[in-house]
Amino acid sequence: MSAFSRSRARWVALGLLLVAGAACSQVRVPAVPPPPEPFTRYPYLQAVTDSSAELLWWTRAGLADTLDYWVAGSSDTSRVVSVDSTARRRVRLERLPPGTAIGYRVATGVPGGAVARHDFTTAPPRGVDAQLTVLVFGDSGSGSDAQVRLSRLMEPVSPDLILHTGDIAYPVGSEFDFTERHFRVYQKLLAETPFFPSAGNHDVLTDGARPYRDAFVFPRTATSPDALYYSFDWARVHFVALDSTDDDDAEPGLDVRMPGHQREWLERDLARAAADPDTRWIVVFMHHPPFSSAKGFKGHGSDEELRESLMPLFDQYGVDLVFSGHDHTYERTHPIRSGSIADDGLGTTYVLTGGGGGEQGFRGIGPDWFSAASAVAFHFVTLRVTSTEMLLEVRDLQGDVVDRHRIRRAVPGP
Fold first, then answer.
1. Of 101, 221, 289, 414, which has the fewest CB atoms closer than 10 Å, so is most exposed?
2. Is the pLDDT of residue 353 over 60?
3. In angstroms, rounded to a whole number, what is the distance separating the alpha carbons of residues 190 and 39?
4. What 3-state DSSP class applies to 105?
């Protein structure tokens, strides 16, 4: 296909998405009640570290809301009054003790208005051997019955943090899409659990991804303040969120490359993590899949260009696990190194988790050389991390186990 044809196809695809977005932009999620008045987005956690956290909520403009927070078991309470001319409220909590339960209470500035009271736990001290539970899912934000049912199965997991592999808000990542198909559906989870996103192609289609940027707070580890890629540490795990929609020369979300600035940042970031004795595991998450054997209508398959760009870095610096989405299926590869299957513990495991609730079309999974397990099913992933192994467990809409696998630490090297 010529460059002109590819460009024309991208514009046609963008037009179809915008038409679809206009057609269903006001479709709410009937199975989930809205947040109590006057909240339009219930309080949610962002950018939690071992000493700080960001709390956000959306309410009526101009109200004098109050946030009280305290260390669990302590009678000392701190108060922040938040007044803003817009609906969005953001408060940063600092000097918090690591690995500690923090209680908070948000009271809206309306007499008799809603009050939100919840607890969350800060990250453990850096470099401590702490067990943690990570919830991972993607391609969720459709407002479907499957998405809602999966969200209810996720709550009892009680994760320490959540990773999302993108397409958080269908169809076009508008403010309404994020409010109705993400924040409303996962209200309780997001109020008590740190949520770390990666951008999907549907998330960046509106106003240069402005609703996506307004919704989340990104750890500022990237070189550019506008970058949607970042990294963070939790105990002895180094997490890296990549922006696979990033392309200097294409419409946002419709062409996939890894521009030089992001790849250069990634190499520096992985080099630091691999050399850090406090880092035991490296986990990467992004939207587009380096490995996928999805086939059929809307089955995208492997992004080989992305694979060729990133896999040498993952091999060199010993990335243990890579999560992606985009295809609405589940798939786990054998350990991969230098483009071939490697022995256990000598390569990177790639996991595609795109079954969070988005429509599945006529997708299928075809056998491919790299595939160790796969399924066409709505699902979510639970990752339990210890000092010696990572246990991956995948459950479907019925709560049944689709896949379970132990991952050994990858060995870095050329």
1. 414
2. yes
3. 14
4. strand
